[in-house]
Amino acid sequence: MGADPVVLSFYDSVIRQSDVDILEGPHWLTDNLIGFYFEYLSNVAYKDESRLLFIGPEVTQCLKVSRCQELGVFLDPLQVEKRTFIFLPVNDCTQVESPGGTHWSLLVFCKNEDTFFHFDSSSGSNYGHAKQLASKLSKYLSTSEEGVFVQADTLQQKNGYDCGIHVLSNVDLIAEYCAKYNRVEGCGLVKQAEVTKKRIEVLNLIFHLKEELVSLLK
């Protein structure tokens, strides 16, 4: 067994022991963990909800650094023209070759409202990155030239490492609201209690999915 054994293989995501360690401690979430959660939302939680599209961190990063004429390479296979809501985790990394960065936020596009909503738990730290991505995507998604961009009211994080946890908590709140009301406006703020328990919820989810896969193999 390797030094960093695989805990769970789930669609395109591979969760290793190091990912579990990150969730167990007060650590910054990696793109791998956020990607896993977006895979779960796409393939389990909202698998029958075709209006919602969850784009993982890797593709989001490619969209950030690609030229406008190249966006279709990533977006066409996702059938974005059939989607009403598109969720993208944004970080402040500027290079596609070296994933990372220091801060996560959530960008949501609503076709019905023709608006990009940016949810940032650190006083708009990612405003520039999200605005640039929205401006680029608007040429592909929006009916207006630049697309309306809204810096949404967002619960602020209380430390320097929970930005990714806030993204997961926000995507839960907003996706549920969108599925019910068919809009983003009015979704409200996530509660601090939801953020506080999110790490253990994701850990429990990983081990629950692992148990399900093991039982299927018996």
Automatic annotation (TrEMBL):
GO MF annotations, alphabetized: cysteine-type peptidase activity; deNEDDylase activity
Annotated SUPFAM superfamilies: Cysteine proteinases
Domain of life: Eukaryota
Keywords: Hydrolase, Protease, Thiol protease
Occurrences of domain Ubiquitin-like protease family profile (ranges): 13-174
BP terms from Gene Ontology: protein deneddylation; proteolysis
Similarity annotation: Belongs to the peptidase C48 family.
Name recorded for this polypeptide: Ubiquitin-like protease family profile domain-containing protein
